[in-house]
Amino acid sequence: MRWLKFGLLLIIFFFTVYAVSMSFVEENKKFTIEKEINYPVEKVFPQFNNLQNFSMWNSFFSQNNQWTFEYFTPYEGQGSAMTFHDKKNKKSAGDLYIRYANPNKTLRYRFYEGMQSNPYLIDVKFVADKGKTRIVWYIQTPKQPFLKRSLNLLTEDFIADQIDLSMKNLYNTLGNKVDKDRKRESLKFDSLMVENQGIQLLLGINVNSKNDKNALFKNIVINHNKVLNYVKMDLAKKSDEYGEPILITDADNFKDKEVSYFYSIPLPKRIGISDNNFSFRTLNASKNYVIYYRGNYAGRTKAIQQLLLQAKKDTLRTGELQQTFLEEPRDEANTMIKLSLPVFR
Questions:
Q1: Which fold has domain 193-344?
Q2: The predicted structure's pLDDT at residue 34
Q3: Total-model pTM
């Protein structure tokens, strides 16, 4: 009995000491973290402003293979959002929102972890400096109940470590993108060329869409996100493990009121997939008439007609048209596409 009383007094003592110490700890914590990256703000900002990009290099999200992600329109900028769930129990692991965006200058995030009702308040400032970008993170943690305030003593170090690792990932990501941009700068647009194409394995979905001025491109954007999310999140593929998205359709269906197409992403090998909405398709090796096109998406029809006219002139049969998006389909007025038309006798 004496030991029971002693143990109870000891518990009360430690609880009292903990409670007193917590009275000196703030209910939430504010801190600032500043980093610099050797890329211009025009390259850096889109990696923060687009939550699909953000979740791929931000280590808090990219390191956890047990999460699945959903993204919501407008996909980038103010009003965009994403939610993530645990694969095993399907419970919500959290939500991230962009509440304010000033291009190349400021972003305001609201991050809800788990089922918490109080968010992390995160403002990020971008400062251009002679081809480099200074990134300043202003972070305020959620208010914690009195007995949980000790968590605030660990939060700053944890977040600082995550940002350090994330910046290394971002540097590598931007390095790959810059290499691609340099290659694209050497492309010759609007000229008909002949290329030999090897075999490609594609994973994608079959789609039907109205073919009016706005509906088709909006439909492409939606299905691009579906396929890309499945490849990156469900199949856990990194950016160097898949190719640029390819839309396959009849070459002359741009004249129809409704369009059927297969939207896909190239993969190196066939793997098991659990979602019946997706399927594999093999592109056989072929000789292609090719035009690189840049501009309004609707304006691609002139280039397609040029390909068809050349095939007719050369008395060649044609296969399905391949539209490779050299840049992700985001802005209808500014697309960059490789149009490839297989030809044969």
A1: Multidrug-efflux Transporter 1 Regulator Bmrr; Chain A (3.20.80)
A2: 94
A3: 0.61
